[in-house]
Amino acid sequence: MGNSTTSDVLIIMPAWNEAEAIGDTIREVRRTVSHDVLVVDDGSKDDTAKVAQAAGATVLRLPFNLGVGGAMRTGFKYAIRHGYKAAIQVDSDGQHDPLDIDRVLAGLENADISIGARFAGRGNYDAKGPRRWAMSVLAKVISWVAHTELTDVTSGFRAANQRALHQYIDHFPAEYLGDTIDSLVVAIKSGCRVTQVPVEMKVRQAGTPSTSPLKSTIYLARSGLVLCFALARRRTPPVNRTHAPELGAMAGESGIES
Amino acid sequence: MSVASTLVFAIVMVLAVLQMLRRGKLREKYTVLWLVVGGLTIILGLFPHLLDWSAALVGVRVPSNLLFALAIVLLVGVGLHVSRELTILEDETRILAEEVSILRSGLEAVQARQNAAEAAFKNVDDEAVRPTNKGRN
User: Fold this and answer.
1) CB distance from A77 to chain B under 8 Å?
2) The domain at A9-232 falls in which architecture?
3) How far from the centroid of its chain's Cα atoms is residue B107's Cα?
4) Is A217 exposed, middle or buried (0-12, 13-18, 19+ CB in 10 A)?
5) Element of type H or E holding A219
6) What is the pLDDT of residues A136-179, one digit of tens each?
């Protein structure tokens, strides 16, 4: 995937009320890499869609807020219908370094899902207290399920090849944390291989990350619960489809074809 | 007195359900459940001793407890069923939202291409006309 052409890889940016930061993020990404940029406007009340379009991205406008999981599903569906070979999720607030995009994509050479991980040696991103504990426990458990060393399973900076895209369309929960933990566990159970690439995190361009101890504790509890549900979920049959469905075909809604 | 009120209540409920069904405010598959519940309540209102008899049959000492237990089980079941239907509905709504957004972006792309084509066509027309005008002047 190192020398992918413009039509091979789709960059998906879920965005919700990100008008402040998204324009610069898109321009920076387009300066750095030549992949198509798709912004999924998750029912924003501000000018996110207009700003994104002006910056040169294709925009999907969801009629109401579906959450990151729902926005990503929409992006994956778009990617499959338009025949992209791979898709990568990039944050719209500019905290993912565009220079890392091709490095994360390169991870797809020997895996189906490639995660840009924050605690893997590079960069100085750090979380403290319960949130950090939650992240490391989640990472340990999922590493054990995946038989691979994973240090950052809640990272939203992740790439998927066609096999993983089809798997995602069949099961990519639109609920809280479903876009990261749940989807990853089910993808692993369905036979997708996962790898990680160390990346740096930049300071968020707008907005502040939630760091209060109470919020972190709630995060710990909820992510633990999500993990348990994900581990208990029924295994979906292995995905063998590598062809792209016809443009306009109802991908993933007709159940599993074999 | 209490027996009569139970009977009246049950009859009113069945009538309300039938009226909602008639006006299309309740789907048939849900109506059946409430009609069965209403029907059983009417029967119990008419023959209160049925409750004592069935309580003795299953070994419940206080007959009203049998009624309460059955009512709780029924309500929990209904609540669970409604949650399930709601989950299915939310999924369907989400899929529709995804489809709508993808269709809308496709439609906008097609419209933009069509506008560009029309504009180009007009330009070609204008340019084809202009030289002859110039020639005449």
Assistant:
1) yes
2) Alpha-Beta Complex (3.90)
3) 30
4) middle
5) helix A213-232
6) 888 888 888 888 888 888 788 889 998 888 888 776 666 666 67
Number of other residues whose CB lies within 10 A of the CB of residue A107: 21
Is-contact A114 A197, C-beta < 8 A?
A: yes
Amino acid at B1: M
- Name the residue among A172, A196, A204 with its Cα closest to residue A20: A204
pLDDT > 90: percent of chain B: 36
* Euclidean distance between the first and the last CA atom of chain A, given in angstroms as a whole number: 27
**Chain A to chain B Cβ contacts (< 8 Å):** 38
A169 touches chain B (CB under 8 A): no
3-state secondary structure of A206: coil
Q: In a 3-state reduction of DSSP, which class is residue A155?
A: coil
pLDDT at B11 over 80: yes
Which distant-in-sequence residues (6+ apart) come within 8 Å of A195 by Cβ?
A107, A110, A111, A113, A114, A115, A148
- pTM exceeds 0.90: no
Q: Please report residues of A whose CB lies closer than 8 A to that of B105.
A: 58-61, 78
> What is the percentage of chain A residues whose pLDDT exceeds 70?
76
Nearest Cα residue in chain B from A62: B101
Closest residue to B101, CB basis, from A60, A81, A253: A60
Q: ipTM score here? A: 0.73
